[in-house]
Amino acid sequence: MQRFALVVGSLFLAVSQANAELIINGQRVDTTTLPSAASSPSNFPAQNNFQNCLANLRSQAVSRGVSAASYDRYTQNLTPDYSVIERLNYQPEFSTPIWDYLSGLVDEERVQLGRQKLQQHREVLNRVSAAYGVPAETIVAVWGVESNFGDISGRYPLLQALGTLSCEGRRQSYFRGEFFTTMKLLQRGDVREDQLKGSWAGAFGHTQFMPSTYDELAVDFDGDGRRDLVSSIPDALASTANFLSKRGWQTGQPWGFEVKIPQGMSISNEGRRNKKSLNSWISRGVVRADGSPLIQGNLSASSQAGLLAPAGPNGPVFLVFRNFDAIYSYNAAESYALAIAHLSDRLQGKGSFSTSWPTDDAGTSRSERREIQQFLLNRGYDIGAVDGLIGDKTRQAIRQEQQRLGLSPTGRAGQQILRAFRNENAKNLMQ
Fold first, then answer.
1. Contact status, residue 304 vs residue 256, Cβ threshold 8 Å
2. What pTM does this model have?
3. Distance CA 156, CA 149 (A)
4. Exposure class string for 232-241: b at 16+ Cβ within 10 A, else e
5. Interatomic CA distance for residues 16 and 19, integer angstroms
6. Which residues contact 219 (CB under 8 A, 6 or more apart)?
7. Less crowded by CB within 10 Å, the N or C end of the chain?
8. Which residue ranges make up each domain of the chain?
9. Going by DSSP bridges, is the β-strand pair 156-157/256-260 parallel, antiparallel, or unpaired?
């Protein structure tokens, strides 16, 4: 969805339990490590300032279409939560390699659950695809990446979070727009106040729309007169398809596919935006990963594609089309778009990438990350729940264990530390 470009990413992203990590522009932020400031007695003057701010915003809200009665109702007992300001300013120390990012988002658990959802909601998805021209697998892939198929929607009361961001921190004008739009959604009856829980930055519902995107693109697909992306799966799926359609999805065209490039071919200045005709790529010796010709199906010699090499020429390389750009517009990060694109392929029965990522320490699935966490708990580390979420405490514990085992202390929950733990455990069982 269209998000606040500097701040807001997809809510789900690399999570599968209640205390979600946020992906902000493709970077993972552990939402469990930052203290809440809202309950501190020292914030009493700030809370007074918050109430003054809300009072001053009333006229702006009314000018944006919020009735005075609605504004008074939804701000009457509103208190600030300054933890959202900390999250706004938080810069994660840990940069996620793309093979870690994708291995957590597109694993066998999510593929299998996605196939179940495809079967469960087949009738609705068929109607949605017919109406908007977007494949069911792509719609379900967005659903899976954004909220793990509705399991994770966020825990922040939206009015409180957006109200705080409207009065404190950076980009207040942006968040004020989202704050007022949230009230308009309530005023219109699309959602109820008790449904409004989401990310700290305001995204909510099955497929994590920001309020302004909700207002623009949400649709009523179940016919009850409400655009309810929180409780209505048909509305959420159709709204996602509508989003992609409005952002340029081309029916019958691929998002892209993995390719092989000739040895020594320069990829400098290539990328998603620098599209060329397939004829041009053919002339340079580019073929599909399985060695077959580029032009197949509905593609033609003039079809435009950009070369995407997220890990350089030695990793998987892709030709991406306009549909990849449509996915990218949901959350402006190429790694995010690739995760959805790859998950959609897996839901269609396609396999993993043909080319391995250029690393000697490949990423782990969520089940493997849970296994790592269990090893750490058994070693006495206080890392919280075994949930497959790699936060700061888990990374610190991994670093200590890597040092103990003579490995490079990266803090990554990769295959290397997993193998070391398994080997050590096997030795202990034999003693």
1. no
2. 0.86
3. 19
4. bbbbbbbbbb
5. 8
6. 227, 235, 238, 239, 242
7. C
8. 1-247, 256-320, 366-430
9. unpaired
Q: Which residue is listed with tokens 């997993």?
A: 418
Question: Which numeric CATH code is attached to 366-430?
Answer: 1.10.101
In this structure, the dihedral spanned by the alpha carbons of residues 241, 243, 246 and 251, taken in order and rounded to 10 degrees, is -30
Which residues does the annotation mark as catalytic? 146
Instruction: Find, among 89, 164, 148, the residue nearest to 116 by Cα.
Output: 148
Alpha-carbon gap, residue 220 to 214, rounded angstroms: 11
The residue written with tokens 């920001």 in the block is 210
- Looking up tokens 């397939």 gives 278
Local confidence pLDDT in tens for the 431 residues of the chain: 544 433 333 443 433 322 333 333 333 333 333 333 333 434 445 566 899 999 999 999 999 999 999 999 999 999 999 999 988 876 554 568 899 999 999 999 999 999 999 999 999 999 999 999 999 999 999 999 999 999 988 899 999 999 999 999 888 999 999 999 999 999 999 999 999 999 999 999 999 999 999 999 999 999 999 999 999 999 999 999 999 999 999 999 999 999 999 999 999 999 999 999 999 999 999 999 999 999 999 999 999 999 999 999 999 999 999 999 999 999 888 999 999 999 999 999 999 999 999 999 999 999 999 999 999 999 999 999 999 989 889 999 999 999 999 999 999 999 999 999 999 988 888 87
